[in-house]
Amino acid sequence: MAAAVALERLLSAVELSCTCCLQYFRDPVRLTGCTHSFCRPCIVRYCGGRQRAGCPLCREGFELKDLRPNRELAALVSLISQEVKEEELETEDEPKPSGAVPCSDGSSAGRRLGEKEEEIWDISKQLEMTTETIQLLRKDLSKTKDYASQIKSQITEDFSCMKEYVERQERNTLMFIEQEQKAAQEKIEETIHQLCDEVNKLTDIKAQMSNLPETQRYKSSPSTMTKITLDEKLNGVKTAVEDLKRKLEILLLEKYAQQFPPVQPPDLYQETSVCSLSPESAAKLPEPVISSQFSQWAADVTFDVTRVYERLAITAQNRTVMVSSSPTDYEPLPNRFCISQAMCSQSFSAGCHYWEVITKDSNGWAVGVAHEMIGKRDKLGRTEHSWCVEWLGPKKQLSAWHRDQETLLHKEKPLKVGVLLELQKKTVSFYSITDKEMLLHTFEISTSNPLYPAFWLYSLERNGSLTISHTNKG
User: Fold this and answer.
1) Cβ distance 445 to 423 under 8 Å?
2) For residue 443, what pLDDT is reported?
3) Domains (ranges, CATH) in the chain?
4) Which of 131, 164, 432, 472 lies at a C-alpha separation of 20 to 30 Å from 403?
5) What pLDDT is recorded for position 177?
6) CA atoms within 13 A on the CB side of 399
7) How many C-beta neighbours within 10 Å does residue 355 have?
8) CB 186, CB 228: distance < 8 Å
């Protein structure tokens, strides 16, 4: 019994169990820094092949090559193990009291020690797992940076190719213009030379005629020279450049519109040429500001991104709507159009208001006004509270629509349409804009609800766009 008491005191005073395996030390080794001891197999397994690690108890760093055998602890564990075995033999020989439950763990102090060491082991494992998680996250961060760098390089390469293409087209176009100008200049110089010869001949004839009778005088007139002009050829070049510009706008919008924020700095739209190749700034800029007889009622209207079909892209400070070959990333909303229509953000319920729409870049379109509650599947001009003029490309005809009733206008396709909304007179008038306004049609309005500028684009299989023009306010 005395040996048992002494053994229990020794177990209480000295930690003889490894905090990793919670068993008596086997081949104990001491860490040179913090001097904590562990089983050699346990600490090697804990390092997991690493040559340097942190102590499971205090996290102080150590290296496997610096482990030192703890011979004193090994001897003490050996002694204690022998004492425990002898005590167990004595206990087996003694009669057990009735109702006694055999104890397989030794003393209560040993049990308390085991629970403490188990908690320390759990904390050590949590620390190890947390450290590994941090290392994995750092690897993921590095991979993300590498991927972003690759994407940036690819986009830079794409835009470089487009810049080279545009510059090459610019050089070829300027060279063509220069060649045509040179050819025209040579032709004009040749004509001038011919005219000079004609002048000399006429001078000689005049001198001869002064000595001839009246009836024999020379009655012919100088030859009429054809007027040489570059207008036709230069207009053809200008049209080709505009087509190229439009194709680049559509390409940029389709490929990169969803990868960049839609908002651009305001001064980006003050440039007179599409030099920057960002998706939004490459969109067609509004035409120069012009004056109109209705300019005193000019309204600043812009397209509403919440009331536009998903296959229509809004660009250029929300002043241009154009067909996109793929759906945009608009937020799904209950009142978003399910057909190729768009509305403006501004509404009018009183007064007189005027705006202009550039229609020359679309083969099929409708320009009009509509009540806010127009259905998302209702086409403009086909309902009681919507009015419009419409150009249908395949039929090549201009019509006015209201309540699904068509009125043929028998006019040429307008390149720009002006809309005059006079709510005090309850009328809306549409004009074809050239050098002056030519009235196309006037509707009487039968609603007192606020009206919004509204638009429709024909055929999503073809590229087309409508642009709200700037108008000087008188």
Assistant:
1) yes
2) 97
3) 2-93+106-143 (3.30.40.10), 286-469 (2.60.120.920)
4) 432
5) 83
6) 17
7) 23
8) no
Angle at 367 between CA 254 and CA 272, to 5 degrees: 50
Asked if 330 and 314 count as a contact pair (C-beta separation under 8 A), the reply is no
Measured distance CA(407)–CA(399) in Å, rounded: 5
Strand partners, 322: 313, 465
Residue 357, Cα to own-chain centre: how many angstroms? Answer: 27
| Bridge partners (DSSP) listed for residue 320 | 315, 467
Q: How far apart are CA 334 and CA 306, in angstroms?
A: 10
Cα distance between residue 240 and residue 248, in whole Å: 13
pTM: 0.44
Would you state the structure tokens that stand for residue 203, as one six-digit string? Answer: 């001078």
Q: Under a CB-based contact definition with an 8 Å cutoff, are residues 471 and 354 in contact? A: yes
Please write the tens of the pLDDT for every residue from 117-127. Answer: 777 887 887 88
pLDDT-flagged residues of the chain (< 50) = 1, 97-107, 218-228, 257-286, 288
CA distances from 421 to 140, 322, 369 (A): 59, 25, 9
Cβ pair 365, 464 in contact under 8 A: yes
Are 361 and 332 spatial neighbours (Cβ–Cβ below 8 Å)? no
Return the closest-CA partner of residue 461 out of 329, 342, 311, 338. Answer: 311
HEC readout, the chain: CHHHHHHHHHHHHCCCECCCCCCECCCEEECCCCCCEEEHHHHHHHHCCCCEEECCCCCCEEEHHHCEECHHHHHHHHHHHHHHHHHHHHHHHCCCCCCCCCCCCCCHHHHHHHHHHHHHHHHHHHHHHHHHHHHHHHHHHHHHHHHHHHHHHHHHHHHHHHHHHHHHHHHHHHHHHHHHHHHHHHHHHHHHHHHHHHHHHHHHHHHHHCCCCHHHCCCCCCCCCCCCCCHHHHHHHHHHHHHHHHHHHHHHHHHHHHHCCCCCCHHHHHCCCCCCCCCCCCCCCCCCCECCCCHHHECCCCEEEEEECCCEEEECCCCEEEECCCCCCCCCCCCCCCCCEEEECCCECCCEEEEEEECCCCCEEEEEEEECCCCCCCCCCCCCCEEEEEEECCCCEEEEEECCEEEECCCCCCCEEEEEEECCCCEEEEEEECCCEEEEEEEECCCCCCEEEEEEECCCCCCCEEEEECECCC
Q: For residues 307 and 301, what is the distance between their CA atoms, to the nearest angstrom?
A: 14
Tell me which residue of 382, 383, 386, 340 sits closest to 363, measured CA to CA: 340
